[in-house]
Automatic annotation (TrEMBL):
Cofactor(s) required for function per UniProt: Mg(2+); Mn(2+)
Entry keyword set: Magnesium, Manganese, Metal-binding, NAD, Oxidoreductase
Claim: Glycoprotein is one of the keywords in the record: no
Identification of the protein by name: D-malate dehydrogenase (decarboxylating)
NCBIfam families: TTC
Annotated GO MF terms: D-malate dehydrogenase (decarboxylating) (NAD+) activity; magnesium ion binding; NAD binding
Record InterPro entries: ICDH/IPMDH, IsoCit/isopropylmalate_DH_CS, IsoPropMal-DH-like_dom, TTC_DH
SUPFAM superfamilies: Isocitrate/Isopropylmalate dehydrogenase-like
Protein's UniProt keywords contain Manganese: yes
Catalytic activity: (R)-malate + NAD(+) = pyruvate + CO2 + NADH
Boundaries of every Isopropylmalate dehydrogenase-like domain copy: 7-350
């Protein structure tokens, strides 16, 4: 059979993003050698805050055609103490998500073997969630403005945008995901008591789409009560669908409840497959630990596994998950999850496990 080739654009970014991507590429190279059935043509792109400081831009203006032609994007993290965070977000990550029509952000959260939850009695079967975050509009639509800047009368508006198109496609995606999981259960989150236009539309479309999925059990939560339920009754949740901002916040909470933000993965998907999808850990550049070699690479390994799955390499994705979970179970862990290893040691253990399991 012919060897499959995937063109991967990799953007390590800043801080620990660079460290975790370096390790993930080693893992991917091992998988390529073991399987022999696919090649990863990885293009490393230096779109970092250093580049911004030097050239005034993150993404070169002529980069889009080549990026669009890639099969997937593997992203680290962006953010530097020397660049305002709204610039790094709006000049790098958000243009990627928006221009490449990655309208779904999918975040699987589980307690991995050997990792303990800060919740005293929470076991791995109590917390196994799939968070579907709307990724193109809502509170991150970018509409608004500032008037009378630097005066005592400054006015700033931040307009949240909710469209029927954006909500409906997110709901369909979430119901499909919920239907494919054993519990067939979808919880929808809004704040439609206080925000009575966009969020009410969100609720309305949820119930409309629900009619097409009679086999999926549904329920609705207000976001504030949802934080309480996630902590006190994690076992009552399965698939969760939320707006851009709510999904962002709830998934950080979910990651912390599953043991660490360092283990959490995400996929920015264009479900139409007309553009490459982008895979990244949910954490940021972590300037507080950058350069120390102690960042947890597991969230990025998991993201790479999701990338392989999206590309159709299910076998490779499953093997990587299994190797990762065997390693966390064995106690080879970074400090954020209670271990003493550095990231290179975790990577070496995962590579050894891949070779063992293959
Ligand atoms: P952060 O996720 O970078 O760090 C939060 C805390 O978690 C820190 O104490 C950090 O040390 C720890 N942490 C994060 N990832 C870890 C890992 N893999 N292993 C061990 N510990 C880990 O969030 P923060 O501090 O709010 O933001 C730092 C910078 O990252 C900012 O510039 C922010 O804008 C940016 N950021 C970028 C994101 C992205 O690229 N997608 C997402 C979130 C933040
Ligand atoms: Mg976030």
């Amino acid at each position: 059979p012919q060897k499959r080739t995937y063109r991967i654009a990799s953007i390590p970014g800043d801080g620990i993003g660079v460290e975790v991507i370096e390790q993930t590429v080693k893992v991917l190279r091992t998988m390529e050698d073991l399987f022999g059935s696919f090649t990863l043509d990885i293009d490393m792109l230096d779109w970092s805050s250093d580049r911004y400081l030097e050239k005034g831009e993150y993404i070169p203006a002529d980069a889009w055609p080549k990026l669009r032609a890639s099969d997937a994007i593997l992203f680290g993290a962006v953010g530097s103490p020397d660049v305002p965070d709204d610039i790094s977000l709006w000049d790098l990550i958000l243009p990627l998500r928006k221009k490449l029509n990655q309208y779904i952000n999918l975040r699987p959260i589980r307690i991995l073997p050997g990792v303990s939850s800060p919740l005293r009695s929470c076991t791995s079967s109590d917390l196994d969630w799939m968070i579907v975050r709307e990724n193109s509009e809502g509170e991150y639509a970018g509409q608004g403005g500032t008037t009378h800047d630097d005066t005592a009368q400054t006015i700033a508006t931040e307009v949240a945008i909710f469209t029927r198109l954006g909500i409906e496609r997110t709901m369909r995606f979430a119901f499909d995901i919920a239907r494919d999981r054993p519990r067939k259960k979808l919880t929808m989150v809004t704040k439609s008591n206080a925000q009575r236009h966009g969020m009410v539309l969100w609720d309305k479309i949820f119930y409309e789409v629900a009619k097409e999925y009679p086999d999926v059990e549904t329920d609705k939560m207000l976001v504030d009560a949802m934080t309480v339920r996630m902590v006190l009754k994690p076992q009552t949740l399965d698939t969760i669908v939320a707006t851009n901002l709510h999904g962002d916040i709830l998934s950080d909470l979910a990651a912390a409840l599953a043991g660490s933000i360092g283990v959490a993965a995400s996929s920015n998907l264009d479900p139409t497959r007309q553009n490459p999808s982008m895979f990244e850990p949910i954490h940021g550049s972590a300037p507080d630990i950058a350069g120390q070699g102690i960042a947890n690479p597991i969230g990025t390994f998991w993201s790479a596994a999701e990338m392989l799955r999206w590309l159709g390499e299910e076998g490779a994705a499953d093997l990587l998950m299994k190797a990762m979970e065997t390693v966390t179970a064995s106690g080879t862990k970074t400090r954020d999850v209670g271990g003493t290893c550095n990231l290179a040691q975790v990577t070496e253990a995962v590579i050894a496990e891949l070779e063992q399991l293959f």
